[in-house]
């Protein structure tokens, strides 16, 4: 795998690439600009950590925040689920959400209302209350931007971190990888996708957006016992594996043949020349646990697909492909931002 520089030199000027900051730059940014360390904070900001956890005595508050920037469709729905999924990656049920909407100057009140209707519909399904937020029209954006912060509560010490994977853990993923990316590409590039897919396949791709919540599996796995969890979002499976293992100071070995990827996802990714393992994958939870078989069994009982794809190791980051070891390097920008 070739590591592309984060900054590309173009006609004498440096330009940042679209998408999340790469692992090294983000780590440096956090380390240089986070000097206060409060004793109440049990899990704090860091690479691979989905949430921060603040202790309040008998209970602790789990907090996470994320925006939607990679698509213009279903942004209300996506904003709810990607943030609630973060809370679930701590093994905790989300209970409240704040919503910030930045609308472009050409937006209408109906446009904003549509986003809020989506948010209300999805929070109702999850029993999450909208507890605050901010809405404005601004020339600072050219399309709608939605950013949410979600809160959960649990007994002190219960919340799971992303950075505590242990050597020997089973690596588990739920549902199908790249579901969110598949649906986004089908939505945003309808004509191109319809040329390579049957009507049934195209509809299947669109419907994958309906399965992006991982709240149920996060809570179930938290009860059984996991060492770490991380919802697979921007950067795909390879990004999530890298972040968890770097944060935990461990390695991994996964088997490509065991990765759950739908045929329709493979077809779309081939059309756009992108890697499904580097495509945004909300709807899949990455878990590491000594009780992998028990977790898979319980999730299956609850009608949630789950697969053990490998093991946490003590050093290298490896994928087995056709009997060969492929060493995985630091993740690049999500392939959703690289389509042509």
From TrEMBL:
InterPro entries from the UniProt entry: HypE, PurM-like_C_dom, PurM-like_C_sf, PurM-like_N, PurM-like_N_sf
Top-level division of the source organism's lineage: Bacteria
Name of the protein described by the UniProt record: Hydrogenase maturation protein, carbamoyl dehydratase HypE
Originating organism: Clostridium cavendishii DSM 21758
Pfam family, one: AIRS
Family designation: Belongs to the HypE family.
All copies of domain PurM-like N-terminal, residue ranges: 48-153
PANTHER family named in the record: HYDROGENASE EXPRESSION_FORMATION PROTEIN HYPE (PTHR30303:SF4), HYDROGENASE ISOENZYMES FORMATION PROTEIN HYPE (PTHR30303)
Record-annotated PurM-like C-terminal domain positions: 166-318
Biological process terms in GO annotation: protein maturation
Family matches, as SUPFAM superfamilies: PurM C-terminal domain-like (SSF56042), PurM N-terminal domain-like (SSF55326)
Gene3D superfamilies for this protein: PurM-like C-terminal domain, PurM-like, N-terminal domain
């Amino acid at each position: 795998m070739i590591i592309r520089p984060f900054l590309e030199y173009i006609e004498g000027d440096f330009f940042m690439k679209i998408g999340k900051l790469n692992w090294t730059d983000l780590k440096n940014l956090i380390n240089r600009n986070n000097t206060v360390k409060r004793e109440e904070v049990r899990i704090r900001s860091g690479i691979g950590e989905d949430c921060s956890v603040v202790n309040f005595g008998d209970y602790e508050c789990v907090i996470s925040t994320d925006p939607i920037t990679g698509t213009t469709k279903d942004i209300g729905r996506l904003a709810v689920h990607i943030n609630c999924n973060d809370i679930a990656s701590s093994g905790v049920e989300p209970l409240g959400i704040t919503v910030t909407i930045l609308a472009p100057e050409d937006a209408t009140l109906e446009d904003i209302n549509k986003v809020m209707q989506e948010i209300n519909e999805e929070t109702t399904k999850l029993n999450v209350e909208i507890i605050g937020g901010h809405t404005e029209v601004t020339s600072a954006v050219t399309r709608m931007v939605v950013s949410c912060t979600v809160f959960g509560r649990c007994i002190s010490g219960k919340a799971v971190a992303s950075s505590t994977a242990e050597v020997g853990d089973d690596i588990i993923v739920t549902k199908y990888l790249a579901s969110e990316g598949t649906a986004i590409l089908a939505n945003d590039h309808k004509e191109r996708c319809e040329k390579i897919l049957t009507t049934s396949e195209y509809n299947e791709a669109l419907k994958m957006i309906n399965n992006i919540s991982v709240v149920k599996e996060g809570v179930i796995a938290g009860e059984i016992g996991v060492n770490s969890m991380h919802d697979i979002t921007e950067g795909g499976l390879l990004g999530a594996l890298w972040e968890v293992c770097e944060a935990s100071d461990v390695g991994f070995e996964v088997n490509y043949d065991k990765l759950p990827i739908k045929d329709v996802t493979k077809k779309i990714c081939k059309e756009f020349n992108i890697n499904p393992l580097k495509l945004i994958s909300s709807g899949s939870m990455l878990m590491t646990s000594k009780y992998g078989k028990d977790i898979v069994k319980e999730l299956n009982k609850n009608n949630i697909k789950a697969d053990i794809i490998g093991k946490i190791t003590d050093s290298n980051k490896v994928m087995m492909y056709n009997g060969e070891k492929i060493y995985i390097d630091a993740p690049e920008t999500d392939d959703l931002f690289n389509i042509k």
